[in-house]
């Protein structure tokens, strides 16, 4: 098989690392890749949003399977365009990807399929949104409708804060076109959980549980980020909860889309809040979560290429997934300033010391090669991911590896896996 992976983050590095282990994979290309990925795949200098060029490359190189990592090419219709050219892509079509691309679409679908989620209303006029906020009160959550790189969500403790959030999204257009419509949503309290499944449009196969750490600082303080670390399994996801999430959320959504003639294939990710009334959906994503994908790939047993093939071909019925029973933990190392403005081009030291690391892997996210050195090239720079006999051992292993790495301005959380550790104790 010839595979083209689209993206250049820790998620894509982890996917490629796993795909490389498959005997049926003969060649992997990655657009655009990064310094770590380039050791495992052939870099292709294409932008993830350039659907036409990606399809052109896939056609020219007779790619058997194109695997988009991030949501943007999916919402732009990459899978539809591949299919129109007689090619195959792993992921949902443009229509199905609206589940992530439009929060209003996702909310409407959940309402119709009776999937548990916070109450909400969506608005295209800021005055109407403000009126609604006065009606329902605070705390309340204000979200830009479209894609905003995880930043268009403002959790507001007071009505005044919510009014300002509406101004920022709708009047000042801080998130551009994503703010043409806002979704105002009930504030949900509880523990957050990531729930991912593979689906071929009919069978829904849950992946191992995982959990990420969204806030920038220890103790879940500071601003929201793309994710500062993750672990799998998540002890908060009991078998009972898993059954409930499948029955109340995952299956109804896939079936609800199918009833609307939308076949969802690929990874379906539900961001959940485990409230006192049970699991409720915060958001859907239409691809693997990053960094959660990193500990998941470290634990997945079997052939990922074959599994992706089966997903695309409608062949998931009767299958199960196997996982390494050992927990895996990923600590994200970020550039100084992230999630705000950050600098690029800082030389990363110590990676060579981890070349032969046996109990883990340093997945690259924002890195590049410059004059023979690996330098920072993004906000989230590396995902240091380790396995251990228990959560404590995996956490220890990951942080010992982190101690080997440094660059000017590097920062990271020191409490990744804390909740899982508390439960383990
Ligand atoms: P989202 O991109 O919708 O997952 O939102 C990003 C983060 O904002 C989530 O991971 C939560 O921490 C928080 N959040 C989103 N929606 C809500 C909500 N309804 N209640 C409480 N927190 C929320």
SSE order and pairing:
Layout: E1 2-7, H1 10-19, E2 27-32, E3 42-43, H2 51-60, E4 65-68, H3 71-75, H4 78-84, H5 94-101, H6 103-113, E5 120-123, H7 126-136, E6 140-144, E7 153-156, H8 159-171, E8 182-186, E9 191-199, E10 204-206, E11 211-212, E12 215-217, E13 221-224, E14 229-232, H9 239-259, E15 266-275, E16 278-285, H10 293-299, E17 300-301, H11 304-312, E18 322-323, E19 328-334, E20 360-364, E21 367-370, E22 373-376, E23 380-387, H12 391-402, H13 418-424
Parallel strand pairs: 1-2, 1-4, 2-3
Antiparallel strand pairs: 5-8, 6-7, 6-8, 9-10, 9-15, 11-14, 12-13, 14-19, 15-16, 17-18, 19-23, 20-23, 21-22
The chain binds adenosine monophosphate (AMP).
The site of adenosine monophosphate has 15 residues, from strand 7, strand 8 and strand 16.
